[in-house]
């Protein structure tokens, strides 16, 4: 590679960074504030220190331009709603009384006011708060957060670049506000929104910002000519402003397609593009569009969503190809590092040989800085780094950990018949009704119950060696007895054991399957203060022994009512893990499905008549481009059926999905051939029930009537009203009554009251239908 002069040195940058801190200080401070143990000033001080620590770490790692504005107490899309003044009328008084409490009210709701709807951020497990807009929405600029955080970074002596959600993506993510006539398109508000963005940009320039990044990931999805024209108009308008910083428009998660020439021709000063995975097609498309003459290109060559070390030589080759396509080429991760854990060096229980295969956020920033150095000054300046990288890649490729011949032989022997139930749904439904004897509108929950302080203490004591396994298991048994007793007294029809033994719905299973690795500090934000530790899928998957049978059988021994066996499905096991990137995802899904099939069969053999295999990530993992979806859905639905198809006709198979847009996958939901599906529906006002009806979905469904991501307790009347709405779409003989999702994150008082109201609502509506 030709050595470049220092004047042309490539910048190293990132679009965002994990927010939580090394020990999840932000989570603890926010939750302490909610409980009244932490003052607002203390919370703000914790947040400011975390921001400063992040920026210093980035600078020390060699990141020469740090992002600002990506930090959030809850969600960056919610912050954008505040920035543009699109606060719903029902939250306006709370926001005006106290900005911090008002934001939390929009995110979580209050007892009197419902929160904003929440759904997945593209095809990730991060959740954002959906903007609510209507024809009467009035936008007003509030740049205080963006300016203040930029000035904080500058005060540390750093070069900083504010990062904002772009105006087109913001509108494309929005939904019509409640009460707005069907068919309203939020994108029609673009001309009203652009002056507000222009005002924020002007404020940032006045504060000294040389560059501002506007994120437009919605443009990597299939977009209509009208939507592409809106993007062209937006950046023609903003680019024409004279009182603005330089504009860097960013996309990520997939290829830009038809949007790339639109942005390349726009009067902006640079583009930030993803060049990993499917988005590698951006390279050829950029060349075909004539490159970016006179503009800056920020090249996302390091995968910002997975945790494997980068192939530095491959990335350098990509960067070298890009050099001739723009005035300058800088180096970045493919997207915000929000989606990976903070630091692999914190892991003490992973084999050192495997640990060198892993790159979390801190390791990725080092990779980016190395690539920028090599790009600017030649590969001879990074010889040592390249040698270490080659050794790590070779170690992983040749390790026996990654391949199990027995697992591969079993997967190769699967036939189409293995993924089909022995009888059609109509016959199964009759057998299940006779076997289970459930009432009209049967009530159930999704699986987990609140994790009590006693249980968390027992788990911590077990890890620390203060109690033994026998003492811990007695605590679990006590929790199960309490959960079963409560459900029986409340009148719930199909019970769950509450999952007190489970730390996480994916991690619990990963720790018992070969081929998975668990981390101790690999926390990633899912939503708000909810953090998860995605396990690492490093090798071939098998199940050495039963994972859930003992606790499910114990719970069933306590009641004559059916107790559901609870499993996490194969697609979700992949989606909420860091998956291997050395074989097709469908091959890995089949391995996981076969391991789970063994568990399903063992549950049935031990007397479990209802088995729920959760697939909340089925929609989340749907490819962003329609052309890629058929292949994904084929292996994803086959994996679910392979997991569940080996049971008797009278064993009822449930699945569960939540917090996603289901309209795109109703046919896939049908193709799962589950007997019952429960779905999130409370925040979206039973939208999914209507979508199922429009499709002609023939099986049983439980659209949720209790929003578990809010602390508010829905009244029996409110739940009954949602049920009546559901009945307009789904016949009573096929409608179930349940919460939106599991109850792990809720407290017992609100859970108890909410479920009592849920059962009361079911009884009320049964009475209205003439069924006691």
General description of the model:
- The chain is 43% helix and 12% strand.
- The chain is α/β, with parallel strands linked by helices and 772 residues long.
- A seven-stranded parallel β-sheet has the order 1-5-7-8-9-10-11. Strands 16-17-18-19-20 form a five-stranded parallel β-sheet.
- Helix 16 (405-412) packs across helix 23 (585-605), helix 18 (453-464) runs antiparallel to helix 19 (469-490) and helix 27 packs across helix 28 (748-768).
- The longest helix is centred in the first third of the chain and has 22 residues, at 40-61.
- The termini are far apart.
Radius of gyration (Å): 26 Å
**Structural class per helix/strand content?**
alpha/beta
Range of helix content: 40-55%
Strand order of the largest sheet: 1-5-7-8-9-10-11
What oligomeric state do these chains adopt?
Answer: single chain
Strand content: 5-15%
Give unreliable regions as ranges: 1-7
Number of strands: 20
Largest sheet: 7 strands, parallel
**Overall geometric form:** globular
SS summary, helix count: 28
